[in-house]
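Let's study a protein:

___
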Amino acid sequence: MPSRSLALPLCALLVATACASAQKLGDRAAATGDWKSAEREYAQAVRDDPSNADLRARWADARARALAAASAHARACAAGQDWDCAWGEADYAVRLDPGNADLAVLRRDAGRSLGQLRLQRADEAAGRGDFGGGLQLLAGARAVTEDPGVRAEAARRQPGLVSGAVGQAEGFRRAGQYPQAVALLSAAAAVDPGVRPRLAEVQAEQQRALAAEAARLERNGDALLGQRRYADAEQAYLASARVHPGGRAAALARDAAAMREGDAATQARDWPRATRAYQAAVAAGVDPGGAAAGSLEAVRVRRWAVRVRSVLARPALPDGQPWVGGRSPVFDAVMIGARAADRAWRDEDPSALRTAIEVARGMPPENVPELVTVVELGGRRMASPPRRALYAVPDAGVVVAANGYDDRAIALEVLQPAAARDLGKVQVRLGDLVSRGRVVLYGGALRVELTALPTEAPEWATVGPERAPVSAPAPAYGAPARPASW
């Protein structure tokens, strides 16, 4: 009930506002002597407020003035044989005063003369080859008079006009000019229903042609989209949508426009703006090749747990001697298997990797060096405590905010402090790591596996089974400091 009580005053307010507007327009027209407009606006005001006596009086006055002016104008135009004007003014006057016999006669006579004039003009149009214009004049002649003579003349002229229009339309159709062909056939069908089947055939052919052209433009847009020429692709899709509305081209145009905006924002390294743009591209509902989703993933800045999953060192020095300690029969026996594992330090060979791990774990303890792993990322250096191992699975790291365009490098170096020896150093662009999720790096005597997974942990928090300060200093060659392990 409360909503109803509010709705009634609101309705009354809207009616009053509309009424006031119509009255003002009527007053303005009356002030300039435009009695036709004044009559029309006052009539609307009276319909909005029927009980307003003042409005009804103004309407009656404007109506009388408009009627007098139209009647006088109609007679003047008839005297000057301006039949378009005479019929139009007389028709208006008769609608204001339907019972006026003199006005009815004036309209009838003007209509007959106007009909004859339009038939003459139709002949002239046909002589110029303008069959569409001729048919419109023919229909116009019939619209203004019921005179039998005019009707008979119209019927006599109709077949020639229709035949000419159909023949001309066929020429347009063969030339692929379907709008002109359809316009001519529509004009012919308006006076001769027998043309309607041909009109329907040509309209269907037009739709097929439009669909084919739209598909061509869409394919062009697809090619441009694949080249990341998003502005050109957008224009191709918009052209396709104009040719044949209702397909997927409009959505593809939105996708291309959003991708264009996203690329511009990415170039400016404006990640929030780029994220919004690529989100809009995904929301367009079309994503050829997953480009929008991929771009969104690449620019979205999020926190990643960057972990050192494994570090594998070669079992011996390049000359075959142990990293530490002397040679022994056990060492030599283990090194026989090392030859089969050599590919593990060059490429992803699962079988070689398994053998390399077995070799590392089978190395005599006296030949296993004490190593320190140092990681540098974002200006921070993290170091492990010295460990005796040729194969380690730290599964530890740090949380960093990044996206696929982050140019910072994550570098890992393995040192043998006791021998002042560097086993190797590897590095990867942070953006590449978070985009791929996992990388395996080869350098010197090292094989290193790194991973990056999304996390909710705070930036620069350490992750993994063992925790350590991220600012632990890297040890110098020689006797190392002993930071907490990570």
In short: The CA atoms of residues 375 and 382 lie 5 Å apart.
